[in-house]
Design brief:
Structural class: mainly beta
Largest sheet: 12 strands, antiparallel, barrel
């Protein structure tokens, strides 16, 4: 028979183990959401200001019939809104992002969103977005969660600085457990960055950039600031098929515990246009995290594909 003090001690150990497992699960959910956001970061492209006139005149000569004729050509209409839905399935070799004994799993991500982008005067562009995503796992259902994101930003395209794009954004992220419907993570973030696109032809280009990220999270143990650098290459292989290769390095400094991480990711993606509003994609990426606290070291590899419906209006 165990003495009362021994039973009490075992109960404490059990509670601590459960809390640690729950904390590890929440940490992996946060990291999975952040990795997905990083891989989904779109190249900042300034939108060209369209002519205000609805019709543009085009002159043509035909002196043998009716003399000089004037034809009216309809200008492209500015379409600042985009609504989209995406369903993707992935397999991973390290679902909990652990250092030892990694576990494999498969998960599904369903995303619904809305974007608004509009050019302003003097090379400025405003954008805003709303996105809701659900993550559902095959084996480890306790990891199921949903993510809500809101963002607004301003981009400035500077020809005087060699065509560099400067941008600033505010973002809000909320993660909610699918099992309990409780919010276990919220984050307000400020992001500033710069990007340069090098175009080789209409079919392919490269880009490089740097950014800084300041977060204000709850719980504070997950709050961190980031400095990142990235480089990518885009190829329009055919009229309907395009490919993207991306490398990203991030230094992360956490608000508590003196933790500092170095995170690197390489991704390769293919996108095929089925119609003007339907796209199929395949993506694979590998990542590795090295921390000054070795318990947070991990390696991961994910691969999968999906279908996207996108309407611009």
């Amino acid at each position: 028979m165990l003495m009362r003090s021994q039973r009490h001690f075992l109960l404490i150990l059990t509670a601590l183990a459960a809390a640690e497992a729950q904390g590890q699960a929440q940490n992996s959910q946060i990291e999975q959401a952040r990795q997905r956001d990083a891989l989904n970061t779109e190249l900042i492209r300034p939108v060209e200001t369209l002519a205000p006139a609805a019709l543009e005149p085009t002159l043509g000569g035909d002196p043998d019939s009716f003399g000089i004729q004037q034809f009216l050509r309809e200008a492209e209409r500015l379409r600042p809104f985009r609504a989209f839905a995406d369903v993707s399935a992935f397999v991973t070799n390290n679902v909990a992002l652990t250092r030892q004994d990694p576990l494999s799993d498969a998960f599904l991500i369903a995303t619904f969103g809305f974007e608004y982008r509009r050019p302003l005067a003097r090379g400025l562009q405003f954008d805003a977005s709303l996105r809701y995503a659900t993550f559902r796992y095959d084996k480890f259902r306790q990891l199921d969660f949903s993510s809500f994101d809101l963002g607004i930003g301003l981009t400035y395209h500077s020809e005087k600085l060699g065509g560099i794009d400067l941008y600033a954004r505010y973002g809000f992220n909320e993660l909610r457990s699918a099992e309990t419907d409780d919010v276990f993570f919220t984050n307000h973030a400020l992001l500033v960055g710069a990007q340069k696109v090098v175009s080789f032809s209409q079919a392919h280009y490269a880009y490089v950039g740097v950014s800084g990220h300041l977060g204000f999270a709850d719980p504070q143990a997950s709050e961190r600031s980031e400095l990142s650098a990235f480089a990518g290459y885009h190829l329009q292989a055919t009229r309907n098929l395009e490919a993207d290769l991306l490398y990203r390095y991030i230094y992360l400094r956490y608000a508590e515990g003196g933790r500092g991480d170095q995170n690197q990711t390489i991704s390769l993606g293919f996108r095929y246009r089925i119609t003007d509003w339907c796209f199929a994609s395949a993506t694979s990426y590998i990542g590795w995290n090295r921390s000054n606290q070795s318990v947070f070291n991990y390696d991961t590899a994910n691969a999968g594909g999906g279908l996207t419906l996108s309407v611009v209006f």
